[in-house]
Amino acid sequence: MDEQHVGADPCVRPTNNEQRIITLAHGNGGKLTQRLIKEHFASQFANEYLNKMTDSAIVEVNGVKLAFTTDSYVIKPHFFPGGNIGKLAVCGTVNDLSVMGAVPKYISCALIIEEGFSITELDVIIKTMKEEADRAGVKIVTGDTKVVDKGSADKIFINTSGIGEVKYNIIENKISVGDKIIVNGTLGDHGIAIFSARENLNIKSEIKSDSASLNSLIFSVLEKYPNIKFMRDITRGGLATVLNEVCANEEFGIEVYENKIPVREDVKAVCELLGFDPIYIANEGKVLMIAPADTADNVLKIMRGHKDGVNAQIIGEINTTHSGKAYMKTSIGGRRIIDMLVSDQLPRIC
Amino acid sequence: MDEQHVGADPCVRPTNNEQRIITLAHGNGGKLTQRLIKEHFASQFANEYLNKMTDSAIVEVNGVKLAFTTDSYVIKPHFFPGGNIGKLAVCGTVNDLSVMGAVPKYISCALIIEEGFSITELDVIIKTMKEEADRAGVKIVTGDTKVVDKGSADKIFINTSGIGEVKYNIIENKISVGDKIIVNGTLGDHGIAIFSARENLNIKSEIKSDSASLNSLIFSVLEKYPNIKFMRDITRGGLATVLNEVCANEEFGIEVYENKIPVREDVKAVCELLGFDPIYIANEGKVLMIAPADTADNVLKIMRGHKDGVNAQIIGEINTTHSGKAYMKTSIGGRRIIDMLVSDQLPRIC
After folding, report:
1. Does B346 map to a domain?
2. Is there a domain that residue A27 lies in?
3. Which residue of B115, B125, B141 is the best one to mutate when testing the A interface, meaning the one whose CB has the most A CBs within 10 A?
């Protein structure tokens, strides 16, 4: 295999004798995504910024610390209960900057549009992006538009990249035993809303995507408690993935309590019906924070007082029982390991 | 039509009674692209940064001036004589920053990959990106990977966004009558190379994409002549498009001399055969500079001394004969207007 790479001519499409191909599971945010990124991208691009594998890279230009992030949105369908692909794109980039303690400032908007796409739909998407950008206090300052022939894209893909000004150096804070794990609300709403819309499930429910810009919530916490140890928005791969990312290769482990994890009753019902596990389902307006034990209750109070954190919960804590692993204490008192997502429950969710 | 927009529910796909749809010509960089951007994006997003409609937005964070740009690459085929989609993506973003007088610093890499894509091909593309980034002195610091189901993308799309540190305030320089127009080499190589590869034309030629990072060339000029009035890389829509962008709504016009425009003999031959006009063909390693008359010869000398400017030429000048318009003085002494590109000669070229 490696022989094909040595001195590969960059102009000639290499032959693929081994049929090593990309599968949908490479894009689900779970085990295969992480392996692909680690073995094929991070190892190749390797530098001090990328190596940290954070939601945004923290870079410096002329002494000013910036957060820089990128995300493409390929969600299907592109309109859904709770928003559309444009809202998702702005919120996602705002959140990736905010969880690094960076105030979101400028966003780019690059569109890949399939020939034949409706300009009326495009207008609504663009209007939504503008409204969400205003809400989050960011400016969309640069863009790009590509049109591809029919059948070469699925209607519309949006890439948003963003620049933020680092205000809190969260990555320098260290997680320690006893720290509490907090989420700002119910899990799984986004994934189930998308799935229902996509499959035209006739579920009589109010389940909507939770898609939201969380910078207001996040900075209302950080202003009072800049010693938050860690933050990540809980998207592809769900809570399970973030928990595993937090403790992978660490001396500590995580325990979460099943009965503390907030999940809407109707989301629970759909998950049971379809055999999904809510902790693997994507969210778009949820953040996981790790706070020192002595401030966790106050952080929770701030969250619950904010419109985006009404259903916040302390769901678990950092311990040393199983280092490098995340466990769940089940409602009936059992204990099960929380593994990374392997096969795909729901592709094209963001 | 506007009634559909007023209070449009962002969660519900609007009906499209009028069948206003996106066509390939909306993506060719010409008239329709500009109208789409102006009427549907710029008018909606409107802010002091975006309004300038430059290759990169010039923004400020904590007193530091940054250039910020984004581009998606959807080229077909993704391997071609002279490079691959990965090289294009890095060069394109490096160039969009450099033409603003900004030193390219950090780049993002967001991939949309079609299920079934070869990992061997992916590896070559990623390796090429790394090599080109090293050559240009930029770091790829953040990324994203999405996988879409078969038939929902054309193999691989790459978005690169970039941050540069503004070193020369080119946009503050004003174009004036008598300024000279310079290009750094032969036009049309990229477009014709891609077209030949795509159509499997059995043209016995050495035509290769000119794809190159031009920051080294550009800064070797700017170090000596920071009073360059304008720079733009000549990509989609070709020379004709850039000339029109330069003089649109201005008091001045442009005249270029047909016999000074550098075009390779084999590119000329293919264009004649197929009915293409080289001044509308895309390039990926060409920059147009506008220099004060008294420095133009020296700028040309610097360019010709650089590997990326060996075939540089002064091709025309700013005048007042036809304000707001670009004209070409033909080889036989005639004069023809250079219009914006309307219908597409070659889609999916970048």
Report:
1. no
2. yes
3. B141
Distance of CA B117 to the CA centre of its chain: 27
Are residues A179 and A219 both part of a single domain?
yes
CATH of the domain at B217: 3.90.650.10
In 3D space, the residue among A221, A194, A272, A12 whose CA is nearest the CA of residue B87 turns out to be A12
Secondary structure tally for chain A: helices H, strands E: 10, 14
Statement to judge: residues B104 and B227 lie in one domain = no
Shared domain for A332 and A186, answered yes or no, is yes
B42-83 tens-digit pLDDT: 999 999 999 888 889 999 999 999 999 999 999 999 999 999
Neighbour-count burial for A168-178, b at 16+ CB within 10 Å, e otherwise: bebbebebeee
The encoded tokens of residue B262 equal: 């550098």
Tokens encoding A294:
């002595």
Distance from CA of A61 to the nearest CA of B (A): 7
Q: Is the pLDDT of residue A18 over 80?
A: no
For residue B309 the two structure tokens come to: 């400017």
HSE, side-chain direction, 13 A CA sphere, residue B131: 16
Burial of A295 from C-beta contacts in 10 A (0-12 / 13-18 / 19+)? middle
Provide the 10 A C-beta neighbour count for residue A19: 9
Percentage of chain A modeled with pLDDT above 90: 83
pLDDT tens digits, residue range B146-157?
A: 999 999 999 999
pLDDT at residue B279, rounded to an integer: 96
Helices (H), chain B: 2-5, 31-36, 43-45, 85-98, 119-136, 189-199, 215-224, 238-247, 265-274, 293-304
Cβ proximity of A267 and A190 under 8 Å: no
Could you tell me the two tokens for A237?
């791969």
Contact between chains at B139 and A26 (C-beta distance less than 8 A): no
Number of domains within chain A: 3
Provide the whole-model pTM.
Answer: 0.95
**For residues B79 and B214, what is the distance between their CA atoms, to the nearest angstrom?**
21
A238 and A324 in a single domain? The answer is: yes
Do residues A261 and A326 share a domain?
yes
**A284 contacts in chain B (CB < 8 Å):** none
Residue A60, in any domain of the structure: no
* pLDDT of residue A204 exceeding 70: no
Among B265, B268, B267, B262, which residue's Cα sits nearest to residue B286? B262
CB contact under 8 A, A63 and B61: no
**Mutate which of A2, A4, A11, A48 to test chain B, going by most B C-beta atoms within 10 A?**
A11
CB atoms within 10 A of CB A261: 19
Report the distance separating Cα B278 and Cα B238, nearest Å.
8
Question: Which of B1, B21, B161 lies at the smallest CB-CB distance from A117?
Answer: B21
Considering A169, A200, A230, which residue would you say is the last residue of a domain?
A169
Measured CA to CA, the distance from residue A342 to residue A31 in angstroms comes to 5
Contacts of A25 in chain B (CB under 8 A): 147
